[in-house]
Amino acid sequence: MKRKAILVVSFGTSHNDTRQKTIDQIEMDIQQEYLEYAIYRAFTSKMIINILGSRDGIHVFTMTEAMEQMKLDGIEEVIVQPTHILNGIENDIMIHDVNLYKEDFNVILFGAPLLNVTEDYKKVIKAFVKKIPALSQNEAIVCMGHGSEHYTNASYAALDYMFKSQGYDNIYVATVEAYPSLEDIIEKLRENKYRKIILIPFMIVAGDHAKNDMAGDEDDSWKVILESEGFEVTCVLEGLGENSDIRRIFVEHINEVLTSE
């Protein structure tokens, strides 16, 4: 019986198509790398957990349920690896919920989210650009990040800056719910005389935000807004979790925790 476990924590998605290509794949990659560990899953979104339960009959653990189950299963050592982009609100809540169980396990360790240190940004950019087509002079990519009220939201602006410093002047990062917004980016797209825009979600899954806020047909979707501004728009509905090099970063974050112990 395995006494060590890796709890993979995601915000979650109610879109099974993207979940299978992203969250499922991240968990499988982690399992392949760490065969001696039992793998557990938890979602931090109660709303998504409820949708999956009532619509599909799929039960996904909350953080508390996952910790209770591991305790019941006799797990002694736990590595908690989030699939979050940032050390933001969801990550803070996750750490708080796990730390309530400090006395119940011999060891609890936390892996970092995707963007944690400067080296992560460089790896993410390298992984991202490997998957994009060659762009013509009048084409640009706009990445849709989620955005957060948390101070780590500055990571999106830092990523945008780093794309430029790495020589990718035609890649922009904006967010749905914070700064930089799409409006902030549109001015720059006009200044640089881009005519064609490729929209790509900068999210682990291509779920609600990607399908509706980015690529939807409602007046407030990024696609419709950009088209109304005169741009020709193409949408790529692929989550970051579909990129094997991105998934590898999460595996490396677990390894960093184990080697620094």
Automatic annotation (TrEMBL):
Keywords: Cobalt, Metal-binding. GO terms for biological process: anaerobic cobalamin biosynthetic process. GO terms for molecular function: metal ion binding; sirohydrochlorin cobaltochelatase activity. The active site is at H146 (proton acceptor). Coiled coil: none annotated. Co(2+) binds at H146, E177, H209. The keyword Ion transport does not apply. The keyword Lipid biosynthesis does not apply. PANTHER family: SIROHYDROCHLORIN FERROCHELATASE, CHLOROPLASTIC. This is Anaerobic cobalt chelatase.
